[in-house]
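This part of the workshop introduces the protein records we will be handling. The structure tokens are whole numbers drawn from a learned vocabulary of backbone shapes. The record below serves as our worked example for the rest of this section.

===
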Amino acid sequence: MRRVLSVFSLIANLPVRSESNDMNSMVICLVIFVVMIVLFFNRKLPMSFTSLGVVVALFVTGCVDAETVFAGFGNNNVLTMAGMFIVAAGLSRTQMVNNITKLLYKITNGSFTKVLASYILVIFLLGQFVPSLPALFAMVYPLVMNMCAQLKVSPSKMMYPIAVTVVSTSFVIEPIGPYAAWYVTQNGYLESYGWTGEMLSMWNETMVFLPTAIVTLLLAIFVLPRMMPDEPDIPLAAISGPSISEQEPLSPVREVIGYGVFILVVIGLMLGLPSWAVTMAGAAVVTLAGVLTEQQALVRMNMSMVLLYAGVTVMGEALSNTGAAQLLGDGAAALLSGVTNGYVIGAVFYVVSFLMTSFLYNKATTTVLIPILIITCSSIGCDPRGPIILCSLASMSSLITPMPNPVVPMAMQAGGYTQKTILKVGLVPAVVRGVVGVLIAMTLFPAFG
């Protein structure tokens, strides 16, 4: 009880950056956030237009400035999403998707579980190399849609498990992929904030992330599909647009361009080229070559997804800039006062990181929280290495709101999910990953060893 009271005391005495209007901005921002979540739940308005309304409300109330708004609509992920969906639509316009679908259907004897397992294992392997999660999701999107039509099941059964795999099992093998030097960055934080004990090594994160990823893969294949709705919460016709795979076949040259551009874009992403530039260039070639018409390209850009993600990105920036997100980190420090059980410490940081990620972009969470984490651990004499790894694990585990990662709103639109659905289903992998991660991390790196 004393710890809980200390949190409220901390919040009551939280510095308001010396001006009352900053506290007012924080309160207004939190109110707008709550309204946004409520509107996502009740489905009275399309989520993309709710997102746009939130942006306007944040700007009018002074929670964000014009520069932040424009940055939200022009960031790397937004451009990557738009470009990759056009490239993927170009692939769908060819016969390759149909041929792959028929082959996989034959190999798996039309088994939903075997088909899903095949996609998930391929995503897991690609996820260690492709640096852009939105691009990775967009790569498999046309294949999944086509296979669902072949299996005569709704995409709502498959899209969220695919999204969980993309977000939660990518980049888990530390020596390879775009985050091969992750431990070097974290060691820099440790040195900067006064930690004098043992530093992280290259394989430390993998020792926690890889077994947790394996458990996640099993959940995504065998458990999550049973929890997904049989039919979309939102009509998919408004999301997918008219079919382009059933139109007149392309000429041989355009056929080759359609899947050739897709392959080159994937290679470019794996080589670490700027994801927005690679995907937008691919989108331009697909359209200029006539694989897609201008109208088809505009429809397949999926502006509802783009607008939804751009809006929630601005919301995340507002929560961060007004200090609302800082509240959670400071509250965690107060809760840990006097705690001597390492597993409890690890669990608290996992939960706080998970909650913060639900409000912010996942990279923003680790940037904000890790310095607080190190300072807190140092003050109580606790080894911060396990909590640092758990903070990153939690940032990859939050898929209960559309804010942590662009893949979440993409999946919500592609599978026709509401906020209620992803909240209900998303808590399952979050809890399981938290339990497994805390047990491994705090065993390998005892808090008071």
About this structure: The mean pLDDT is 82. The CA atoms of residues 119 and 349 lie 32 Å apart. The two ends are 28 Å apart (CA to CA).
